[in-house]
Specification:
With 244 residues, the protein is an alpha+beta fold. The protein is built from 8 helices and 5 strands. Helix 2 links the parallel strand 2 and strand 3. InterPro entries: Thioredoxin-like_fold, Thioredoxin-like_sf.
Length: 244
């Protein structure tokens, strides 16, 4: 074999070896990426499971002041109604959204008939998912303080009607301000409080009050001081049973 032939053969062998090494390196990178993705997925699943348990913790050891007596909520109905209902909620909690969607009309009817007094007590439970949770409660506090309970209740309803997914995207403070104005608030009265989050002390106090009452998850619903658990339909039926 001539020198040129040997050189060409050696060159081909070197290129083949380099190609094999490159292929092995690519396979190693793919393996590392696959393992990394599996680990990340497991972390996300475990985190989501923790938050699910935290958000749906059904502790029955809750001692709350009667409906209408808290400074951290908005009421609906006659203060002298024979049955009082308290709903602890987080504006990001999807289970709260399900309950609100199912119960709004029947609770409104019972309140209008003078049968129940309902108090909604929002607080910050899910900040570890998104800062939307405390920002929404802050906006609610601003509207309640500046615009009164009627507008605050309308704003409360709009927050749930426009509730974001726990995975986002999450409305910014301007979007919250727009909803407040839609609910009937004067923009000049609530703009600074919502955009600058001036009621965060209120949010912290409301959250502390809920925790001190023994609330560990949302929604937590009390009917005449007793925690009621179950599906939205079961909770609504428990309120109806208390009225009957």
């Amino acid at each position: 074999m001539s020198k040129n032939s040997r050189a060409r053969a050696e060159d081909r062998a070197a290129r083949a070896q380099a190609a094999r090494e490159a292929q092995k390196a690519a396979e190693r990178r793919r393996t590392i990426r696959s393992v990394t993705l599996v680990v990340v997925a497991m972390v996300l699943i475990v985190g989501a499971a923790f938050l699910f348990v935290r958000a749906t913790d059904g502790s029955t050891d809750v001692t709350a002041t009667p409906a209408g007596s808290s400074e951290f909520g908005v009421t609906m109905g006659d203060p002298d109604a024979p049955v009082d209902v308290i709903v602890y909620e987080d504006f990001l909690c999807p289970f709260c959204g399900d309950l609100e969607s199912a119960s709004r009309e029947p609770f409104q009817e019972l309140a209008a008939d003078g049968e129940v007094l309902v108090e909604y007590r929002p607080f910050n439970l899910l900040e570890r998912i998104s800062d939307y949770s405390p920002r929404a409660v802050n906006a609610f506090a601003v509207v309640l303080t500046e615009s009164g309970p009627e507008v605050a209740k309308a704003f409360h309803d709009l927050l749930f009607e426009n509730q974001p997914s726990e995975s986002g995207p999450f409305p910014d403070n301007q979007a919250l301000l727009d909803l407040a104005v839609e609910a009937g608030a004067e923009e000049s009265e609530v703009s600074e409080g919502i955009l600058e989050q001036t009621m965060r002390d209120w949010v912290d106090a409301a959250t502390q009050a809920a925790q001190e009452a023994g609330v560990q998850g949302t929604p937590t619903v009390l009917v005449d001081g007793q925690v009621v658990q179950g599906s939205p339909e079961e909770i609504i039926q428990a309120v109806r049973d208390a009225v009957a």
